Amino acid sequence: MKQAHLLKALQKDANLKLPKITDRNLMVFRRAKKKYYPWEETIMGEANIIDSSKLSKIQSEAVLVTSLADLEELIEIKPLAGSSYVLSASEPFNEEMEIDFDRMMSWLEHYGIVQYHIHVSGHIMPLQLRSVLERISAKRIFPIHTEHPELFAKFATGIKGNVIVPEKGRVYKL
Fold it and tell me: Which pTM value belongs to this model?
């Protein structure tokens, strides 16, 4: 549901060529729950909604995009042994993530699902970041997702644009 909501929001950008949530070939998985948010009800009124029961019947013809929170739906879906699960995430890096990962692996093992792990991270390598900044040619650059903004400012020396190390409490006009 969240991905469908995001997809609908992104469709407002005319430069993006995205499928419409009303496309009959696109099904939106709805997890059973007692109450839905207004944005979920909007999606349910527009999209081709599929639940665990229906998905169970057509699972060999579908790709399910889901999160760890939805793994309990496997009980209703009854996935076929030999099905594949692609985990697109970074490796667990704290105890809570380790527990969630172990729980997920237990579910997959229980159902005989093969797991493939593709590392995904929101972090960019330094030289790739420098290349992106050079192509963007921003007038001002604010390093905000770093523990060492001063180091970033030194790293960005020579890049077109002014690196501004944000100060807590100060307002910046964009």
Answer: 0.61
